[in-house]
């Protein structure tokens, strides 16, 4: 397989995953805003997606309308839903000759339908419906990746793209929200926190998962534990690394990327939240993890794509 | 309706072709090829075609069968208008076309081999030497070079027009990077989805095996001694107007689609592509990129699309370029008038398909005649393509004619002239209903060795959508139709 193809497929999968992650975040914030006194503020979304500077350069006020405009429609924001879908489509288009034809057609249809949407039209038809629609369309595309692509090298790059993005996103989300989960003063903030935990779980699609795994009301430390260590929750950092290691192993058994990813995976399989907190803060751990994952992505590039 | 279904006429009172029409005769009767279709059309409620047309539009958009228009903002993608009424060609007509195309392509291939080789045709005085050797399309870099298998013209698109029941003319030969074949294939795909019943009734010869024949053509042209040659399609990239086609053909043939950045020529003068397992040798390159941009070491230095060293590798026969370098001198408009002579010279046969009578303005007599009769003629730039840089005398304003006359006087050798042909028309769906519109025909010929040319029974039919217009190019508002060649 061409190195450029590997790169395009990898980013195809990353960008469609990012589109969905962004929409989940927006949806959670949008729901929170409807709770009495419950606005979580919109700035965490900008922090998580790394776009706070870009936003400030364009807007004076941190209003829901500004953030929604910026994070959904703005093509100058590389993490907006439009930008992510556009990048997915371009990468898919570049590789349409080797991908199942349904994949280009479905992402192309999504892109064409996006063209007809504006802030005002979503106000009329409903933002929640839009979020649902983007989740459906991106899940459809991912489903096509998994169920229609031949399990060849291209597939491995698609899987790595998905899970590198997902590991990164889950860590960023947790990093921005950990103060809600583990407040330094440990004071009980009551009901609002309960909803905030709930929304946070929802933004990684983990509300149902939490209940089926722990069978109890959300407890902050367990939420963190699930997002980092759970081997059964598909959006945990542990699960993501499991998939990454499987794909790297399927490509080549002697790559440096496989070696370093396996070390991290070993930690995620055996570690615990208490173990982390004995040595350092959750924030420090997550910062390291995000940096490590970015390095791994570069390493994959130099191992396979150059 | 039952009366209608036996009715052998179409469009009484509203369908009034002004020139030879493929479907309807002067008396309103249906031509043989269209007999069944015309009766079917008569029985359709007016909305059916309209509806199917909208459906087709959605299908094309969804499939992303788009092209970029040069001169517009980069990345803007448009659909080529598609017309849901097919162009139908009777089997006997096709047999003649097929024989004529094969003959023509064989002669042109021999011609290219000759002018870059022994130059017998020039020595025999059949074509003026200056016309070839001083032609800007003549590529001295491949002088003396014979490509593997002696094939220069692996893929040709021959533009043909029809003027009456018996006469087809070749308008132009395209032997560099002819495009459009994906429309031949996708138009069929879409038509079969829209009108399944028609295909059951009609014996339409299939075209879907084109990619298979193309792959055979590529494989057959591999450098000598290479077993299991690796072929690739070389595209300028996703912003090229024909990118969809490049991707489509690569996919259908199951070969890699590469860009310049994926290829490199190593110190052994072989071409490799960069893969995740390291360099992989490439044996045949179906390049959809013009000679000028192919290799910055030899041709345009500023080309970012090409790959340095390709020329070197091709000259050493470590890789085969498809089509060969330098074909432009074979499909040049100034050389075109000599194709009938080539057929007689190389093959000893009478041409099956006629050329359009052509005035070569480099000849003083021709030039004088053309300037006096410019209002009746079509003037074309010898190196122009895509319908740009031409004057259609009968449609031009006085001012346009005067400007063109000046240009001709300045460089008469840059122009040729032809009588305006009454191109045949075909029923076409318009906002106001079904109306006759002018069409041309581009079949694709694949040369697998100098004696074997395969033409898939089908073609791209281009249609000029504006009433009375003779310009069918997609860059100037032309559309396409599915082309049905009927079985015997």
How would you portray this structure in words?
The complex is a heterodimer of chains A (306) and B (488). Chain A has 16 helices and no strands. Chain A folds into two domains: 1-149, no CATH class; 151-306, no CATH class. Chain A has helices at 3-33, 43-48, 52-58, 64-73, 81-94, 101-115, 119-125, 127-148, 153-181, 191-203, 207-214, 220-229, 237-251, 256-270, 273-279, 282-305. Chain B has 16 helices and 23 strands. The two termini of chain B are 30 Å apart. The interface between A and B is medium-sized, with 22 and 23 residues.
Keywords:
heterodimer; A: 306 residues; mainly alpha; 2 domains; B: 488 residues; alpha+beta; Rossmann fold; Dna Ligase, domain 1; five-stranded mixed beta sheet; 16 helices; 23 strands; globular
Question: What does the average pLDDT of chain A come to?
Answer: 91
The shape of chain B, in one word, is globular
Cα(first) to Cα(last) distance of chain A is: 12 Å
How much of the sequence of chain A is in beta strands?
Answer: under 5%
CATH architecture of the domain at 224-318 in chain B: 3-Layer(aba) Sandwich
Structural domains of chain A: how many: 2
Major β-sheet profile of chain B: 5 strands, mixed
User: How far is the first residue's CA from the last residue's CA of chain B?
Assistant: 30 Å
State the major sheet of chain A. Answer: none
Supply Rg of chain B.
Answer: 23 Å
Q: What is the largest interface, and how many residues per chain? A: A-B, 22 and 23 residues
- Portion of residues within helices of chain B: 25-40%
> Total number of β-strand segments of chain B?
23
Taken as a percent bin, the fraction of beta residues of chain B is 15-25%
Overall pLDDT level of chain B:
91
> Can you count the helices of chain A?
16
Unreliable segments of 5+ consecutive residues of chain A: none
Strand order, largest beta sheet of chain B: 3-23-22-19-18
């Amino acid at each position: 397989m061409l190195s450029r193809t590997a790169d395009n497929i990898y980013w195809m999968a990353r960008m469609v995953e990012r589109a969905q992650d962004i929409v989940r975040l927006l949806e959670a914030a949008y729901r929170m805003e409807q709770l009495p006194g419950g606005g979580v503020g919109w700035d965490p979304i900008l922090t998580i997606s790394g776009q706070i500077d870009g936003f400030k350069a364009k807007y004076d006020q941190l209003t829901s309308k500004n953030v929604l405009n910026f994070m959904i429609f703005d093509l100058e924001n590389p993490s907006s839903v439009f930008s992510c879908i556009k990048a997915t489509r371009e990468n898919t288009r570049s590789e349409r000759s080797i991908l199942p034809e349904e994949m280009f057609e479905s992402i192309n249809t999504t892109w064409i339908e996006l063209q007809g949407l504006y802030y005002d039209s979503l106000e009329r038809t409903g933002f929640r419906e839009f979020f649902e629609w983007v989740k459906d369309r991106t899940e459809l595309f991912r489903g096509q990746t998994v169920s229609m692509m031949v399990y060849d090298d291209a597939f491995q790059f698609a899987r790595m793209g998905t899970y590198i993005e997902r590991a990164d996103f889950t860590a960023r989300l947790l990093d921005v929200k950990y103060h809600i989960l583990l407040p330094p003063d440990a004071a009980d903030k009551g009901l609002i926190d309960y909803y905030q935990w709930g929304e946070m779980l929802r933004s990684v699609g983990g509300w149902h998962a939490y209940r089926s795994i722990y069978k109890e009301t959300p407890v902050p430390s367990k939420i963190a534990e699930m997002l980092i260590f759970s081997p059964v929750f598909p959006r945990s950092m542990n699960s993501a690394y499991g998939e990454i290691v499987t794909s790297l192993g399927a490509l080549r058994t002697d790559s440096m990327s496989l070696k370093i990813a396996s070390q991290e995976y070993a930690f995620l399989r055996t570690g615990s939240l208490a173990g982390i907190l004995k040595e350092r803060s959750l924030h420090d751990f997550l910062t390291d993890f995000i940096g490590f994952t970015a390095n791994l992505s570069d390493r994959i590039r130099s191992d396979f794509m150059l | 309706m039952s009366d209608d279904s036996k009715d052998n006429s179409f469009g009484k009172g509203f369908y009034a072709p002004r020139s030879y029409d493929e479907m309807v005769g002067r008396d309103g009767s249906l031509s043989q090829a269209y007999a069944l279709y015309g009766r079917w059309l008569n029985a359709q409620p007016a909305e059916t075609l309209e509806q199917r047309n909208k459906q087709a539009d959605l299908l094309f958009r969804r499939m992303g069968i788009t092209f970029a228009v040069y001169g517009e903002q980069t990345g803007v993608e448009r659909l080529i208008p598609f017309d849901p009424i097919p162009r139908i060609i009777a089997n006997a007509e096709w047999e003649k076309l097929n024989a004529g195309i094969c003959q023509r392509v064989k002669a042109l291939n021999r011609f290219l081999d000759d002018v870059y080789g022994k130059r017998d045709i020039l020595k025999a005085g059949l074509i003026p030497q200056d016309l070839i050797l001083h032609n800007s399309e003549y590529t001295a870099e491949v002088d003396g070079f014979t490509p593997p298998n002696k094939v220069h013209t692996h893929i040709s698109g021959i533009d043909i027009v029809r003027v009456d029941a018996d006469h087809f003319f070749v308008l132009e030969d395209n032997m560099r990077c002819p495009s459009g074949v994906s429309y031949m294939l996708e138009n069929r795909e879409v038509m079969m989805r829209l009108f399944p019943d028609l295909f059951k009734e009609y014996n339409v010869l299939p075209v879907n095996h084109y990619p298979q024949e193309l792959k055979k053509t590529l494989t057959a042209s591999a450098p000598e001694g290479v077993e299991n040659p690796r072929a690739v399609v070389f595209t300028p990239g996703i912003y090229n107007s024909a990118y969809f086609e490049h991707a489509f053909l690569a996919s259908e043939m199951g070969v890699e689609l590469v860009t310049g950045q994926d290829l490199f020529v190593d110190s052994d003068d072989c071409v490799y592509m960069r893969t995740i397992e390291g360099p992989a040798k490439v044996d045949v390159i179906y390049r959809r990129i013009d000679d000028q941009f192919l290799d910055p070491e030899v041709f345009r230095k500023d080309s970012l699309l090409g790959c340095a060293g390709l020329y070197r590798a091709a000259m050493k026969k470590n890789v085969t370029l498809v089509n060969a370098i330098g074909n432009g001198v074979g499909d040049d408009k100034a050389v075109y008038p000599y194709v009938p002579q080539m057929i007689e010279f190389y093959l000893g046969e009478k041409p099956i398909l006629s050329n359009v009578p052509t005035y070569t303005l480099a000849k003083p007599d021709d030039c004088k005649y053309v300037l006096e009769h410019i209002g009746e003629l079509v003037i074309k730039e010898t190196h122009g393509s895509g319908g740009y840089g031409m004057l259609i005398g009968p449609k031009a304003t006085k001012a346009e004619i005067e400007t063109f006359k000046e240009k001709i006087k300045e460089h008469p050798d840059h122009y040729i002239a032809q009588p305006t042909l009454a191109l045949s028309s075909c029923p076409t769906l318009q906002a106001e209903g079904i109306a006759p519109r002018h069409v041309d025909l581009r079949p694709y010929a694949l040369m697998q060795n100098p004696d074997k040319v395969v033409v898939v029974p089908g073609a791209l039919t281009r249609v000029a959508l504006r009433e009375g217009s003779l310009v069918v190019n997609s860059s100037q508002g032309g559309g396409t139709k599915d082309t049905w060649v009927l079985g015997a």
